[in-house]
Write a structure and sequence with these properties.
Oligomer: single chain
Radius of gyration: 15 Å
Strand order of the largest sheet: 4-1-3-2-5
Largest sheet: 5 strands, mixed
Distance between the termini: 21 Å
Helix content: 25-40%
Length: about 150
């Protein structure tokens, strides 16, 4: 996918699920989201853990801004907080209409001194922490997806 005359932006937000989501319900939603994203030239990544979503969206500014307004009105989640919104020159997720990963805390042992990038991204108070945590999650996601392919 390439940029149109409007350019590209990336927008990252975090939100809290309004109700528990089962894996099957998330899978059904992803079918809908991926279709919409493909039709609207949106790429990105969706992570879900312990009732919290973090999503990266990439696309034309007007499309992404309209989508985030719709997301903000969606009753399936609340506390939508935009973490990053900035222009980009190329997509990090050009191959995905919506990459997705659900994971639970406590499933894998956490080594001593481990830093939790998911939690860092949610609680970041400065741009450098947000950028670092997002970079780590993106790398983790891409590495994990490549290993499963």
């Amino acid at each position: 996918m390439t940029a149109n005359r409007e350019g590209l932006i990336t927008l990252v937000y975090a939100s809290t699920a309004s109700q528990p989501f089962r894996e099957t319900a998330l899978a059904q939603l992803l079918v809908e989201f991926r279709r919409f994203n493909t039709e609207n030239h949106i790429t990105g990544m969706l992570l879900f853990r312990d009732g919290r979503f973090i999503q990266v969206l990439e696309g034309a500014p007007s499309v992404i801004e309209s989508l985030i307004e719709r997301i903000g009105r969606d009753s399936r989640h609340h506390d939508v907080r935009i973490l990053v919104s900035e222009p980009i020159t190329e997509r990090k997720f050009a191959d995905w209409s919506m990459g997705y990963r659900s994971f639970r805390r406590g499933v894998e042992p956490v080594p001593a001194g481990f830093r939790d990038s998911f939690a860092d991204l949610e609680s970041a108070t400065d741009a450098s922490t947000t950028a670092r945590a997002l970079g780590e999650l993106t790398l983790w996601f891409r590495t994990r997806e490549a290993a499963l392919s």
